[in-house]
Write a structure and sequence with these properties.
19 helices, alpha+beta, Creatine Amidinohydrolase, Chain A, domain 1, Creatine Amidinohydrolase, 6-stranded mixed sheet, single chain
Length: 595
């Protein structure tokens, strides 16, 4: 593979020489600033061989460098071996550390090639400011990959479908009218939405253009009287096309977005979100017509309605039932001496979920890490290369499902056997104590993710331990498993650390500890934020699956923590036992016994 990557880099450098480009910046996203992308946009992975979801590649005439965050350090070191690409380990996740590095690498007058479709307005403003101060020149329409990538996949052409009123909190017209009221308030004519999960949420439509995400490639222009949906019309079934037409939602070709905006917004004012709209579209809009605003849709969809929360609880119940079947299968298979790999178990988790009503696929590629593979935070087992799961080892299982009534994301760590080493039990229990501390937090309105994040780390910190990722992210409602704006994070580089929690927000709680070459431990539930009293908030656990008591050192738990764990397991038992078989009840009862 390293020779293939070297050849691709050399092909790019030949193209750079022809077009007088001295450096190229290649990010991970697509023209919609998506975290997960269709294979058409996987340029950075194709040219570098690094397959993580976050990272930026810079290619120079005499070298190449890639920046990624701590979740991917171990993976990147492996995948970049002998590629000629130097790994730079980001000290602050998501921070643009590559930009000042490049500005000092180049000399005045040199040119940087950028495909401005792949950069937000805010990102491009930062790049321009820093590069112009050093007299560097930006070529904003450099896109050589249609020429170089001979077998580049086409943009997906999968059909969209309606997320029916049975599941949705509000109709698409109700959501559009909410946005129109905001347009009136800001004396604007249009709102341009480019983020795919926001478009899907507003229109109550879903698709399958991106693996694991029920999304479709489109732009949406919301006007005071009608909306314009830019996507290929042949992706829309006739009945749905007719419905959209009656709702004054006009469907125009995806590729016509630029010319249509020039015509529609020529003398109109338009609301945009600078952190998500790509710089290429921004460049064709009249500056005097633009009104920058926060992402209204992200803020609206982050707060789930009671109807949505009730559906999500059903999805959690189904997910718990599926995982009971999967873990029982694993234990029985290993007990019977069968050879079971990490990949096999990932497939079984997906299979048992697929037996549940309204299941629509996994919400992300399952992370199944046995022993040292568990320390690779975003490790995904590959068929034929996965480790064998054996007795006497530690297994980290992070997986999730997409159901019409909700998106799930759960991590459990188990020991295959009865007597885990004391070191593992101590580390697991420290993680559990932080997990419980955050789960039972009681905090005033206005509290942000950075403040709450420390609750999950406090016991690890006391032992000189930490974990190199945020403690939690928002979760969509049959949408993206990673959703903004809120979360638990250690720094203000993203909104996860700086957004105040509000009632109805759904967020993961997932502390961990990772010892490279030994093992990884993580526990994850999904929480919903609820009002408590006197302007205070708290969390309610939604995830329904037992937490390993084999790995818990009860001596390290205080009385409040024991009570929390017992109450949680009682809830799991009460919600799942009525709908599972007798054999499954016996297994679950053993897992949920009070301590």
């Amino acid at each position: 593979m390293s020779d293939i990557i070297k050849n691709r880099l050399q092909s790019l450098r030949r193209d750079m020489k022809i077009h007088q480009i001295d450096a190229v910046i290649i990010p991970s996203g697509d023209a919609h600033q998506s975290e997960y992308i269709a294979s058409h946009w996987a340029i950075r992975a194709w040219i570098s061989g690094f397959t993580g979801s976050a990272g930026t590649l810079i290619v120079l005439m005499d070298g190449a460098a890639l920046w990624t965050d701590p979740r991917y350090f171990i993976q990147a070191e492996k995948e970049l071996t002998n590629s000629g690409i130097t790994l730079h380990k980001q000290t602050i996740p998501h921070a643009p550390e590559h930009v000042p590095w490049l500005s000092h690498k180049l000399k005045a007058g040199q040119r940087i090639g950028i495909d401005s479709r792949l950069f937000s307005i805010s990102q491009m403003d930062y790049i321009r400011t820093l590069f112009s101060s050093r007299d560097l020149i930006i070529s904003p329409i450099y896109n050589p990959f249609d020429r170089l990538w001979a077998e580049r996949p086409a943009l997906p052409n999968t059909p969209v479908f309606e997320h029916t009123p049975h599941f949705c909190g509000d109709s698409n017209i109700e959501k559009i009218n909410t946005l129109r009221n905001k347009l009136t308030l800001h004396q604007a004519d249009y709102l341009l939405i480019s983020t795919l999960d926001d478009i899907a949420w507003v229109l109550n439509l879903r698709g399958s253009d991106i693996p694991f995400n029920p999304l479709f490639y489109a732009y949406l222009l919301v006007g005071k009287e009608e909306c314009f949906l830019f996507m290929n019309e042949n992706k829309i079934p006739p009945y749905l096309n007719h419905k959209l037409y009656n709702e004054k939602i006009r469907v125009l070709p995806y590729d016509s977005i630029t010319e249509s905006l020039l015509r529609l917004v020529n003398e109109a004012t338009i609301i945009i979100h600078p952190e998500s709209l790509n710089a290429a579209i921004h460049s064709i809009l009249p500056a005097e017509n633009i009104i920058p605003q926060p992402n209204w849709v992200m803020e609206l969809k982050a707060i789930k309605s009671e109807k949505e929360i009730s559906h999500i609880k059903k999805a959690m119940q189904k997910d718990g039932v599926a995982l009971i079947s999967a873990f029982i299968w694993l234990e029985n298979s290993i007990h019977n001496g069968e050879v079971i790999t990490e990949y096999d178990f990932a497939e079984k988790c997906a299979f048992f979920r697929s037996q549940q009503e309204d299941y629509r696929g996994e919400s992300f590629p399952a992370i199944i890490g046995f022993n040292s593979n568990g320390a690779i935070i975003h490790y995904h087992p590959a068929q034929g290369q996965a480790a064998t799961i054996k007795k006497g080892g530690l297994l980290l299982v992070d997986s999730g499902g997409q159901y019409l009534d909700g998106t799930t994301d759960i991590t459990r760590t188990i020991f295959l056997g009865d007597n885990p080493p004391d070191k593992i039990k101590k580390h697991f229990t420290l993680v559990l104590k932080g997990f419980i501390s955050l789960a039972k937090a009681h905090f005033p309105a206005g509290t942000v993710g950075m403040q709450l994040d420390t609750l999950a780390r406090r016991y690890l910190w006391q032992e000189g331990l930490n974990y190199p990722h945020g403690t939690g992210h928002g979760v969509g409602f049959y949408l993206s498993v990673h959703e903004g704006p809120q979360g638990f994070a250690t720094n203000p580089a993203t909104s996860r650390g700086t957004t105040a929690f509000k009632s109805g927000m759904i967020t993961t709680n997932e502390p961990g500890v990772y010892l490279e070459g030994e093992y990884g431990i993580r526990i994850e539930n999904i929480l919903v934020c609820r009002e408590k009293d006197h302007n205070f908030l708290h969390f309610e656990d939604l995830t329904l699956f037992p937490i390993s008591q084999t790995l818990t050192d009860v001596r390290l738990l205080n009385q409040d923590e024991k009570e929390w764990l017992n109450n949680y397991h009682q809830m799991v038992w009460d919600c799942l036992s009525p709908i599972i078989s007798d054999d499954e009840k016996a297994w679950l009862n053993k897992q949920c016994l009070p301590i």
